[in-house]
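A further point concerns the way the authors explain their paired sequence and structure data. Showing the layout once, in full, would remove most of the difficulty. For illustration, here is how one protein appears when written out as sequence plus structure tokens:
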Amino acid sequence: MKLKEVQWNIAITLGLIALVRPIIKTVADFNNKTVSPSMVMLITFIIALVWIGIAVRTKLKSAVSTLAAAGFVYAVASIIMAVIIQTLFPEHRDKEANLAQILTAGLIASAIFNVLYGALLGFIAQQLMPRPAKKR
């Protein structure tokens, strides 16, 4: 990934849009409800379509780099959100994870996965973009 190619305004926007999924799950948890795995998959699929759609619609030249960066933004933002929830709402604390685990292993694993996921979505977006006509 070439950081110079990343369109950070789009990467940050897309990364923050993806927070919809953990926000929905958190709100459900706070209300003693559960979000079904199929609903989580549907939300994830919709977010992926939004990322790809925005990349294609804006003819993003560096779709792979920018969407990989969006994955990183999402990873960092979701970890920050988890830490805030763990700190401010101890009754909703994840019993199996402490803050040190979230900030180290959680951030590393989340960053790696989401950067790769974003890059894959960027690659898909690039393949969907119209190619310029060849000159004869």
The chain has one domain: 3-128. Residues 3-128 form one domain. DSSP finds five helices and no strands in the chain.
